[in-house]
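Appendix C reproduces, verbatim, an entry submitted by the partner laboratory led by Prof. M.T., so that reviewers can inspect both the input and the predicted structure.
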Amino acid sequence: MKDPEIRPTVDDRIRGFAERAGAEVRCECRRCFDYARESPGTAMLAAGAAGYVLHWLPLRALLVAKLRLTMKLLPPALFVYGAAKACEMARLCAQNAKRGDGGNQEAALGFTNPHSPS
């Protein structure tokens, strides 16, 4: 049974999202391989059509546009991630202050000093 006080961190949520997305991609990949095994002729025709279309697409322009979009969206995404981490740290500090362990905030956040005498 999980402790109701413990909530998943931002890193846990991102890791969980990435794991779910990876599992979904693997499932779709397996499904495509199964389809190719069941009907190889159709799969070959689809692969040939995809190759023909990709040959005529302006791939360089598409990649440059994707890179520009990524560079435009990266600063706000990093800001939101930093704000979420700051809120998480503030919540942990508040919880420790309630418990009476407000002076040891580094330990509450998981920071340890290997050179400190314990």
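Residues 59-99 form the longest helix (41 residues). Additional entries are available on request from the coordinating office.
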